Amino acid sequence: MTQAKRIIGSVICVLLLLINAGILSYSILRLIEFRHGKVEQLVLQVQTDDAIKQITQRGVEDSRARLKEKGWQFESIEATGDDEIIIRVPDTARNADIIAELWNELGPDWEASESSKAITFKLNQARKGYIRNLATDQTREIIENRINALGVTYPLVARHGGEGAHQILIQMPGVDDPERVKNLLNADSNLEMRLVAKGTQVPYDTKEAAEAAAKTQSGGEDIYETLFYRERATDAGSAREGYLVVEKNPVITALDMREVEARRGEYGGSRYEIIFRLTSVAATRFGDATEKHVGDYLAIVLNNEVKSAATIQERITDSGRITGGFTQRQAEDLAFVLRSGPLPCKAIYLREETVSSNRWIQKYGVLTGIFVLTFAALIVTLILINRPRRKSDDAYYPTSRV
Asked: N or C end of the chain: which has fewer CB within 10 A?
C-alpha cells in the first residue's frame, strides 16, 4: 500500500471515528435521561392557512389605503377566501390604473384579473408554499425556545410528516406538569394596545350598540372595529363585561416589548399584573400616541379580547403595566409566552401520548451497541492501515515480476 493511500485511509477513518463518537455520546446521554420517568410525545398541526389569511387581510387594508390616497373611486375591497382580494368598482375606466398601482403595492406574487366591474388579485401557489413553510419553521423555532426556557432537558422538536404536512413532532422526557407545558407551547400571545374611539362608551352592553357607534366615527368600519371586553374581578371591584369600539391598527404589539415580567399588583392582595418595557423605537411611537390622546382610553387587547381599558393620564414612553385580575400562575404564564414571542399562526395537537422510558432505553441501547461495534472496527482498521510493513510480509505477498 502506498503512502498516499495510507494517508487517505487514515483521514477517512478519523472522520468516521469522530462522527461515531458524536452519535455514541448522544445515545449515551439519551439513555441516561430516559433511565427514569416517561416521555411526552406530541404532534402538532400548524394552521398555515392562518398565515396566508393574515397576508391577504393586510393586502386588503393596504389596497384600501392606497386607492383612497389616489382618490380613485371603488365600491368595496374585501378578502374572498384565504388568498384572494376583490375590488369592486363603479365602472371600468380606471381598471388598468388600479391594477398597475395595486400590483406595485402588493408585489409580483399576486396575479391580477378583471371581469366587468370587479378586479381580482390572487396569491400565486409558489408564494403560498413559501409562506406555509416559513410559518411552520417559525412556529417550530418558537416552540423549541419555549421548551428550552422551561428547562426541559434533551427535548426533540422537529418537522414531522411528508412534504406539505406542516406538522411538528415534540418529545419531552421527564416533564413534571405535562398539561401546563402543553398549554404553554401552543398558547397565543397576540397582545396589542389600541386606542378606544373618542366619545364612545366604555363598555357598551351589547355588540349591536358598539357597532352602531363605530359607524358614526370618522372613517367608520375601515378604521374601527368592535371587540368583546372582559375584565376579571380585582380585589378592589367586581368583573365587567361588554363591548368596546377600538382602532384596528395597534399602537403597540408584543413584538415591541423587550422585557416582560409578572409582579404582585400595585396594591398588594392576591392579584398579579404584567410589567413591560419597550424597545427604543416603540417607546418613541408609544410616547407620541399617548401624548396626543391624553384623556382618552387605551385598551389592552389579548387575542382579540379586551382585558382592560384605562384613561391615559400623561405621556407614556418606555414602560407600563397590564392589569386584568390575573392570578400568579396566569400572570407568570402570560409573561412567559410574551417573552418567547407570538406564534405566526395557531398550532393544534393532533396526537398526544406518554411513552414508557423502557421503549426509549431499548431504542438507544441498540444504537449504542451498534456504534460501539462500529467504533471498535474503525479503530482496528486504522491500526492495520498504519501498521509498519515488515520483511516477513513479503513472504506472503511477493512482488510479481514480468
From this structure: C
How is 239-297 classified by DSSP, letter by letter? -EEEEEEEESS-SEEGGGEEEEEEEE-TT-SS-EEEEEEE-HHHHHHHHHHHHHTTTSE
Q: Helix or strand or coil: residue 156?
A: strand
pLDDT in tens, 27-72: 555 554 554 457 788 999 999 998 899 899 889 988 988 898 899 9
Q: How far is residue 231's CA from residue 323's CA, in Å, rounded to a whole number?
A: 9
Give the whole-angstrom CA distance, residue 291 versus residue 366.
Answer: 66
Sign of CA dihedral 353, 359, 361, 365: negative
Rounded distance between C-alpha atoms, residue 233 and residue 274, angstroms: 16
What's the angle, vertex CA 71, arms to CA 293 and CA 64, rounded to 5?
A: 65
Q: What is the pLDDT of residues 133-181, one digit of tens each?
A: 999 999 999 899 888 888 887 788 999 988 889 999 998 887 878 888 8
What one-character-per-residue DSSP string does 36-57 give?
SSEEEEEEEEE-HHHHHHHHHH
Query: Which residues have CB under 8 Å from 57's CB, separation 6+?
Result: 79
Cell of 302: 389579548
Tell me if 186 sits within 8 A of 346, measured CB to CB: yes
Q: Do the beta carbons of residue 67 and residue 50 sit within 8 Å?
A: no
Please answer whether residues 82 and 122 qualify as being in contact, where contact means their C-beta atoms are separated by less than 8 angstroms.
Answer: no
- Interatomic CA distance for residues 338 and 321, integer angstroms: 13
Residue 274 exposure: Cα atoms within 13 Å on the Cβ side: 27
Distance of CA 332 to the CA centre of its chain: 19
